[in-house]
Amino acid sequence: MELFDLIVLGGGPGGYNAAEKAAKGGLKTLLIEKRALGGVCLNEGCIPSKALLYSAKVLDYCHHGEAYGVTCGEATIDQKKVIARKARVVKTLVSGVASKMKKNGVKVVSAQGTIQGRGDEGFLVEAEGTVYCGKQMLICAGSEAVVPPIPGLREGLADGFVLTNREILDLDTIPEKLVVIGGGVIGLEMASYFNSVGSKVTVVEMLDKIAGPTDREISNILMNDYAKKGITFKLGCKVTEVGGGKVTFEENGQTQSVEADKVLCAIGRRPVTTGYGLETLHVELERGAIKTDEFMKTNVAGLYAAGDVNGKIMLAHTAYREGEVAVNNMLGKKDRMRYNAIPSVIYTNPEVGSVGETEESAKAKGYDVETVNLSMLYSGRYVAENEGGDGIVKVIVDKQYHRVLGVHMIANYAAEIIYGAAMMIETEATLDNLKEVVFPHPTVCEVIREALFEVQ
Ligand code: NAI
Asked: Is the beta carbon of 41 within 6 A of some atom in ligand 1?
């Protein structure tokens, strides 16, 4: 039986990055992945959706060229070519991960791994008939789409009428009518794509707003923007049945329905904690997720968990960092996970970027808060590039210690800019320090600098 210092179960962003860092740190590391390296992020989430959304953006540019003095002729989209390009993008990146593992000496086993408990030397994991032993183990088993017991949903998934994030990213035809259940991140990004490429999109959301925890003013701007572009939003509506070419829901106590050629079910994801022998280790779970502390340790000595499986913040970049924290602790380096400066992005057009506290959450935590709310029209580059755009940025400041607590913005490039705000929060720089930082001009990020100078 081969003995490893570390067995990583699951090769998504949490797992492959941790395996690389562990091997670099001198640990003999085994990575077990049953599907493709890169996990949901690379294969059926972050990356393929960005490939599709970029195709939609190119199409949007063509359609709106007139506003910028450009006549493009008739622009059309070839969905099969879009999907083929997406597959090439995914393949490039997945093979990049594989070569990274090889370069760093991580052994990769491409098979289902099943935990068989603990032996004298460590954790036992069986894969393809071979049993491996790891002195320590990191679980990065990820999450899966929630499929609630709505009548017709499971049957719809079986016959292809209903899709999850996995199947919709391979759809090589454009549905005439798409109904999206759930106005969260996946729902909005896919609604945005199919709206751009010509589907009639309806988003049915249970809450009274889209984009979940996003600042309400920003989610309203996003919703109004997409309503103008033709998406129908049904807020406060609970889906009660799916099938017969329609989605049925309750709106103000009345039963309504909307016709659909395809339905996307995007109502959240849940950690995967069954099907791979986790129960043999008696791991403590919390609300269906593996319970971890700030070092990413579980209640079982030597067992760590990172990424969606611990249910804290289900984002690839959170998983990267959690995996690193786990490995650093294994290597005896002091490191702990902090969740107060994790950016989140919605890749709609315009993009939404957020990090840290909202005004509401900061007040609830007892901070003495000042909020600066600026129009994106304060940015020269934004005005030059966004005909008729009405983005905003909100900077939330702690008046007592003169530090940034949160930044929330809706404007293109927000996804690329928001890390700067995360740095402001993570480093706890004072406003005086931040005002000395020179931002490039003309840029969209300058609007954050502008906001800092507006603080009273
Ligand atoms: P989500 O949690 O973001 O949104 C689900 C939405 O569905 C919520 O607004 C909820 O109120 C609604 N909902 C729940 N049950 C419903 C029902 N029966 N009828 C109507 N609406 C209902 O989940 P989503 O969009 O599936 O995304 C899953 C995960 O993937 C999230 O953790 C997200 O952060 C991550 N993700 C992140 C992306 C990014 O960072 N850009 C992109 C895509 C996914």
From this structure: no
In eight-state DSSP terms, residue 286 is E
- Percent of the chain, pLDDT > 90? 99
Helix (H/G/I), strand (E/B), else coil: 137: strand
Distance between Cα 163 and ligand 1 center (Å): 14
Answer yes or no: is the C-beta of 181 below 6 A from any ligand 1 atom.
Answer: yes
Q: pTM of the full predicted structure?
A: 0.96
Specify the DSSP class assigned to residue 440: P
For residues 236 and 210, what is the distance between their CA atoms, to the nearest angstrom?
Answer: 10
Q: pLDDT band at residue 419, thresholds of 50, 70 and 90?
A: very high
Question: In the structure encoding, which two tokens stand for residue 247, read together?
Answer: 């989605």
Give the pLDDT mean for 424-450. 98
Which CATH number applies to 344-452? 3.30.390.30
CATH superfamily of 153-267: FAD/NAD(P)-binding domain (3.50.50.60)
**Which ranges constitute the DSSP H helices of 64-137?**
79-103
Whether 183 is in the pocket of ligand 1, judged by its Cβ within 6 Å, is: yes
pLDDT of residue 394: 98
Q: How far is the CA of 263 from the centre of ligand 1 (A)?
A: 15
Calpha distance 418→352 (Å, rounded): 9
**How much distance in Å is there from the Cα of 347 to the middle of ligand 1?**
14
| CATH topology assigned to domain 3-144+270-330 | FAD/NAD(P)-binding domain (3.50.50)
263-283 pLDDT per residue, tens: 999 999 999 999 999 999 999
Catalytic, 441? Answer yes
Map residue 269 onto helix, strand or coil.
Answer: strand
238-259 CB burial, b ≥16 within 10 A, e <16: ebeebbeebbbbeeeeeeebbe
